[in-house]
Design brief:
By secondary structure, the protein is an alpha/beta fold. It has 2 domains: about 5-55 and about 330-420, Aspartate Aminotransferase, domain 1; about 65-325, Type I PLP-dependent aspartate aminotransferase-like (Major domain) (Aspartate Aminotransferase, domain 2, 3-Layer(aba) Sandwich), CATH 3.40.640. Helix content is about 35%, strand content about 15%. The strands form 4 sheets. The protein has a 7-stranded mixed β-sheet with strand order 4-12-11-10-7-5-6, sandwiched between helices. The chain has a 4-stranded mixed β-sheet with strand order 1-2-3-15. A 3-stranded antiparallel β-sheet has the order 13-14-16, covered by helices on one side. The radius of gyration is 21 Å and the shape is globular. It starts with a helix and ends with a helix.
Length: about 425
Amino acid sequence: MIDLDFDKQHIWHPYTSMDSPLPVYPVTRAEGVRLILEDGSELIDGMASWWSAIHGYNNPVLNQAASEQLGNMAHIMFGGITHAPAVELAQQLVAMTPPALQKVFYSDSGSVAVEVAIKMALQYWMNTGKASKKKLLTIRNGYHGDTFAAMSVCDPVTGMHEIFAGVLQENIFADAPQCRFEDPCQESDLANITSLLEHHHQDLAAVILEPVVQGAGRMFFYSPDYLVKVRALCDEYEVLLIADEIATGFGRSGKLFACEHADICPDILCLGKALTGGYMTLAATLCTEKISEGISRNQGVFMHGPTFMANPLACACALASIKLLKSNNWQKQVARIEAQFLAELAECRISDSVTDVRILGAIGVVEMKEAVDMAQAQAFFVEKGVWIRPFGKLVYLMPPYIIEPEDLAQLNQAILEFTRRGANS
């Protein structure tokens, strides 16, 4: 038996208070799209373990990859040593991302991938004679992680880190685009970011944003046309562009990478979450030769080196996940999920408690008029046999791509019933 009393007294879960911790549900096994609780009950997982387990759980292909690699070596340091899984994975990443992205730096989490990207941008300008370019520009309602540099470019309110105001580096925030995914970008959406670039470009190292899909800060899908125009503005004002694709990479938005919706290439790209299919923690930051050459000029050394970077087990799982992604025809999987969201989840629009329903690829979002009571919502969804974890006013689904229509229907129906009862009833 899992000791839930000990858990409650001693284990600090994410985004919770130890004074009044939220209930936790003991999982003993996971299979396919199901989490099996200690009492034998099953929950259909609509979260894909924070969007990472795109192939579901206990996948035989990923299990085999991990087992085979474990028989060779679980981990070796990456300083002065290399290994086949790291090399082969880098080959795959270079081949599947925009051609200009030729250099791969491994780390062990999405937040660290963002830290690496920011450090790359700063070091690039330091080593190319423009050390004054130390600030970052981002758009409001964004989320980029929980470490300090990453927190500094999260929205001060919706990014969950407002209590650190005055401690974090003060960066520059542009108004978030209001143009929806299916609409063209209006001049009003660009006016603020254009003005900020015009006035601050001499101090700006990079613009960092989540392409097309704003994740944990807003769960909003904006026009690819906006991204096209921001790329052009960065070029015009000599500012680098960092694309945070940690949540959107590997097919979640309907394209392999969300930048493809706008057909643009960033100077630096951050990947994580689904990289290993949710099996191991691994992230990667890719950059162009322009960036790597600038940092390396005059024997410049990039000053970063995570202990577990390029972990062989994680790299082996990532290789297997990418191969599985291709063989499973992820485009068809994601299109099927999107179609079912449009047919079923869209019904939530008629509920009086709902402000908006947004759907893109394998992402379905229901925005409530009032903030959701987390503990009550979790209990409601568990009773319905599903695992859905809302935040703020947002109730959303990012299921594994392998989910069957009947399981997705149960998730959609649970949210529809939740909206009919209201966020806090």
